[in-house]
Design brief:
The structure holds 2 protein chains of 2 kinds. By secondary structure, chain A is an alpha/beta fold. Chain A contains 8 helices and 11 strands. Chain A folds into 2 domains: about 170 residues, 3-Layer(aba) Sandwich (Rossmann fold), CATH 3.40.50.300; about 70 residues, no CATH class. Chain B is mostly helical. The chains are: A alpha/beta, B mainly alpha. Chains A and B meet through strand 5 and helix 2 of A and helix 8 of B.
């Protein structure tokens, strides 16, 4: 991986006014890297994203971003009853770059349509966001990140609730994004999925490990990350397979601490 | 035919009703446009609370012979301070704090208004007196309407983005806090101005009713806002007709027409379920 890091976190800690929700976070993202973020519910994955995106101030340490950063919320947290089209959502990526008195114009609309084309939803620009499937909604949000011209994209459990064709399609899109030099931070519960990416960051209230999947996804690291939620599946001939109890596939609850802070 | 025209035109021969029509049209435009954002920002309860909580301010201003606008503004300031302070008590949630402050203030206002020493007519502060609208009230409402239209047009993209994804607002380069402040400031101004004509209890109907109705009929924000403004103005004028011919209180008549419009839209939406806002159609 070449080039200066897109994101550098050094000695990062965060809290919601009480005990630390996350501490000792130290890692960097280079252009083109897909980094899986593993951790139990309430382990600080979403808190980390909130600090990186600037929504929450770090209690200690530094976050250095070299470009723009976009956040993809968990899909069922975005509002499905909201009266917007896919194009409207993609256009939202343009507002931060416009002065406050200017409304998105022709150039921004063109950029939004192009971004929808890139994610394969050019034909659905006029459809209501809430009526799209979960996978399509994720892709619209990726289009919004493209319009935002973000170099770093944070994805909060983007595969949750997707059927396997949608998940594969999204995976392909994420590979393309990384191929074009975007840095991706993807929180997930799927250890096998992470094994195919470039690096893995394990957090459980503090950073447990960071490194390439092959040397990082060890049983001790996963046990420290997930505690009792980890199980070892029977040997299928290729060595013991690690798996997670279904219980951890619920949504990350550490979102909910912060709304009033 | 002539009699229908006559019946339609008859009320507007009176200057009082002309002014009332202008007032409900202006407040309707404000309420319809602003109401759509209030509904999507889940500020309906806040809107109702603000409207009720400024009541003692209005009563005190009325008793002291001061402009109602001044009293209402002071009432709003006291109410927001009260909610902020009571909300900090750890055992009391924010909803509860708001309810405590609002009922206290509304009760205080009612106590002052209904005391035997208070002049008659003060109940118009509660139920409004759209037929007593002055030129100054109209000028205020027109100024507010211009302000609301301009600010909402300028902030449209940001309001849409923050309402859709509040957590991502900062990363998108916009401040959710500033958008919220602008919206609540407009809401406060709308209540202050609307309360003169429609009264303390009914101003909320114009802010919430048309937006809730339009939400059932429209699938995009801009058409929804236009639809809500249209419904609010039509209900205002319709309410004045109802009030004129059925000899009912004007503010209450407007509220009745608004509720009727909502029920009609709900029935329409139920008959055409794919048009209902929030209906999720399975997609491939």
């Amino acid at each position: 991986m070449s080039g200066a890091p897109l994101l550098e976190c050094r000695g990062l800690a965060a809290d919601y006014g009480g005990p630390p929700a996350l501490e000792g976070v130290d890692f960097a993202v280079a252009p083109g890297e897909r980094i899986g973020v593993l951790g139990p519910n309430g382990g600080g994955k979403s808190t980390l994203f909130r600090v990186i995106s600037g929504e929450l101030r770090p209690a200690a340490g530094t976050v250095r971003l070299s470009g723009r950063c976009a956040v993809l919320p968990q899909s069922d947290r975005s509002r499905l009853d909201y009266p917007v089209s896919a194009l409207d959502v993609a256009l939202m990526g343009a507002i931060g770059r416009l002065p406050w008195w200017r409304r998105p114009g022709r150039a921004e609309r063109r950029a939004a349509r192009q971004a929808l084309d890139v994610v394969g939803l050019g034909d659905s620009a006029g459809r209501t966001f809430g009526e799209l499937s979960g996978g399509q909604r994720q892709r619209v949000l990726i289009a919004r990140a493209l319009v935002q011209d973000a170099s770093l994209v944070l994805l909060d459990e983007p595969f949750a609730g997707l059927d396997s064709p949608s998940a594969e399609r999204l995976m392909g899109l994420l590979d393309d994004l990384a191929g074009s030099g975007h840095g991706l931070l993807i929180s997930t519960h799927d250890v096998e999925q992470v094994a195919a990416w470039d690096r893995v960051l394990c957090v459980n209230r503090s950073q447990i490990a960071f490194g390439p999947p092959a040397s990082t996804l060890t049983v001790p690291v996963l046990e420290a990350t997930y505690g009792n939620e980890i199980v070892t599946l029977p040997d299928d001939g290729t060595g013991a397979r690690r798996g997670l109890l279904p219980a951890v596939h619920h949504h990350d609850d550490d979102h909910d601490h912060g709304h009033d802070h | 035919m002539d009699t229908v025209w006559g019946a339609l035109a008859d009320p507007w021969s009176q200057e009082i009703l002309q002014r009332a029509a202008a007032e409900v049209a202006l407040v309707g435009i404000v309420g319809g446009l602003l109401g759509c954002w209030i509904v999507f920002y889940e500020l309906s309860y806040g809107a109702e609370s603000l409207a009720h909580a400024l009541f003692p301010g209005l009563v005190i201003a009325s008793l002291a012979g001061l402009p109602l606008l001044l009293g209402g503004a002071a009432g709003l300031a006291v109410a927001s301070l009260g909610v902020a302070v009571v909300g900090r008590v750890p055992q009391i949630g924010r909803d509860t704090a708001t309810a405590i402050v609002v009922t206290t203030l509304l009760g205080l206002g009612a106590l002052l208004a209904l005391s035997p020493d208070s002049p008659a007519g003060i109940q118009s502060l509660l139920f409004g007196d759209v037929l007593g609208v002055t030129q100054l009230d109209l000028a205020l409402a027109a100024g507010l309407a211009v302000l609301v239209v301009v600010v909402l047009a300028l902030l449209h993209g940001r309001l849409l983005a923050v309402g859709f994804d509040r957590a991502g607002a900062r990363a998108m380069g916009t401040s959710a806090l500033l958008v919220d402040i602008a919206l609540v400031a407009l809401l406060g101004a709308a209540i202050l101005v609307g309360v003169q004509g429609l009264g303390n209890l009914l101003v909320v109907a114009v802010l919430i009713g048309p937006a809730a109705t339009a939400r059932l009929l429209c699938r995009r924000m801009a058409p929804m806002m236009a639809c809500a403004a249209l419904i609010a103005v039509a209900a205002g004028i319709g309410g004045l007709y109802l009030s004129y011919y059925a000899e009912l209180a004007a503010g209450a008549s407007i509220a009745v027409v608004l509720v009727g419009a909502y029920l009609a839209a709900a029935a329409l939406a139920a008959l055409r379920p794919w048009r209902r806002a929030g209906a999720v159609v399975p997609a491939a």
